[in-house]
Specification:
This protein is mainly α. It has one domain. Helices cover 82% and strands 0% of the residues. The protein has 5 helices and no strands. Helix 1 crosses helix 5. The chain is rod-shaped and about 95 Å long.
């Protein structure tokens, strides 16, 4: 019963394939999607975001802070409130935050485009599954199953 329906559908699908229908491949949609060319500022923002969000940067920065404070014990050129250190840290934060936000915004746009493509593929798969269900119903009616 089930095997006959599957074989009958497979035969219909082969005829349909030869006539007009072509299977949808995800690779085809990947080839047709436009990948934006990154400008040099975008590449720099991505590199800065990658470095700033790594454990290497965190450990290096922690060592830098400890080194700065230890250096003040032997050669105190920046006394206790560490005004020069505060200036360096503020400047770093002021420059780093917008650069990281630019990279995140671009990644968000890339994720949104990927989600839209997934939605399009899912809708097409749903449509094809409905067509398959209708064909199976037609075959079952013809075979009186």
């Amino acid at each position: 019963m089930g095997l006959v329906a599957v074989l009958a559908y497979y035969g219909c699908a082969c005829i349909r394939y030869r006539q007009v229908w072509r299977p949808y491949h995800i690779e085809d949609s990947a080839k047709n999607t436009r990948i934006p060319v990154l400008k040099i500022g975008d590449k720099i923002a991505d590199k800065v975001a990658a470095v700033a969000s790594s454990w290497t940067f965190i450990i290096f920065f922690l060592l830098f802070m400890i080194g700065w404070m230890l250096l003040q014990l032997w050669m105190p050129f920046d006394r206790y409130p560490f005004i020069l250190l505060n200036l360096i840290l503020s400047t770093l934060a002021a420059l780093q935050a917008p650069i990281i936000m630019m990279s995140q915004r671009r990644m968000e746009a890339r994720d949104r485009a990927r989600a839209m493509e997934d939605l399009r593929v899912d809708k097409r798969a749903e449509k094809e599954l409905k067509e398959l269900a209708e064909k199976v119903e037609q075959i079952c009616k013809k075979l009186k199953i």
